Amino acid sequence: MNERATTVEGVRRTNLAEVLRLVHHSGPRSRAVITGETGLNRSTVSDLVGRLVQAGLVEEHEPDPTRRVGRPSPVVAPSPGVVAIGVNPEIDAVEIGAVALGGSVRERVRVPVEQPDVATVVEIVAGVVAGWRGGALAGCRIEGIGVAVPGLVRASDGVVRFAPHLQWRDADIAGPLVTALGIDVVVGNDASLGARAERLFGAAREHEDVVYLNGGASGIGGGLILHGQLIGGVGGYAGEWGQTAASVADAADRRADGGVLEDEVNRARLVQAAGLVAPDDTELRAAVAESPSEALTAETARQRRILTATLGNAVNVLNPAMIVLGGFLAILRDLDPQAFDGEVRRRALAASAEGLEISAAALGADRLLIGAADAAFERLLADPLS
């Protein structure tokens, strides 16, 4: 192939990736809108969409004739038959979801299991995916698997260096999953993948400077997005908010001498105060909102004081446009969002807090699965015809 042909094909593949990424992350849109957003000409967009349709990656639908005057162009939408599998192993369950292009969760299951090891997670995922392939996902194209792990994940090869609550150390989960299922696998930190999901599909879609904190059974993790880019650090370990020193102003609020943030702002302490056994976030939210227990009321107030102090520090250091809270951290805020947000601003410099928005994660319990699946789609999005 001559140099010019190679260059032309390279440009075409780049343009295909731009169009597919646009409809995946931003939703269905007409050819005319794609033309305007990409800056490509109409005939080029028509050719690109045709190739993506032929590859089974997008579908074209007739537009609503009541919405426009004149001859409207067809609407291009991501194909629901192209999916990635998101996996989130936690200390009390393994959650698995099938996420279609466009970020919609087609199937979801939570398998309760105590502190699963790698072999157990692989066995569960393989069984669930096999069942879906013969049923709900029959005829679908499974593009990859993304695993969101509550621990330190090395960016270069996806090895889980340390997931303390799962007791995984230097664990390879990608290799066994590839062997079991024959599908490409990517592995990342759960909170970083949650931040990715909220930035692309959720509460932070309109912002480029975002602090995300996620609270789960395994502790508190987080993600940092600056100028639209997810920051991983030199090894991929950035965002370990739970391991920072807890901001405890009143000694009476401390529960763990020398403890870090996740020792003090802690889901297990809430669960215990609520008198529950292994609840999911929906059950915990209901208990926190409705329980007349003085012990639970006192515990939620204590944890809110420490969390708002931590977030005030984050505002001073990073000056984000938005803070997004996931998991039980969102439950703490939602008890009284106005008071919570006001306390964060009170603890921050006035200039740094100007225009600050604070929000619960918009994707709810699906955020980690969507983020993991989006990471698994990355190779396809980079080169749709690879």
TrEMBL record:
PANTHER family: BIFUNCTIONAL UDP-N-ACETYLGLUCOSAMINE 2-EPIMERASE_N-ACETYLMANNOSAMINE KINASE, ROK (REPRESSOR, ORF, KINASE) FAMILY. Pfam families: MarR_2, ROK. This is ROK family transcriptional regulator. It comes from the Bacteria. Residues 19-68 form the HTH marR-type domain. Belongs to the ROK (NagC/XylR) family. It comes from Microbacterium panaciterrae. InterPro entries: ATPase_NBD, HTH_MarR-typ, ROK, WH-like_DNA-bd_sf, WH_DNA-bd_sf.
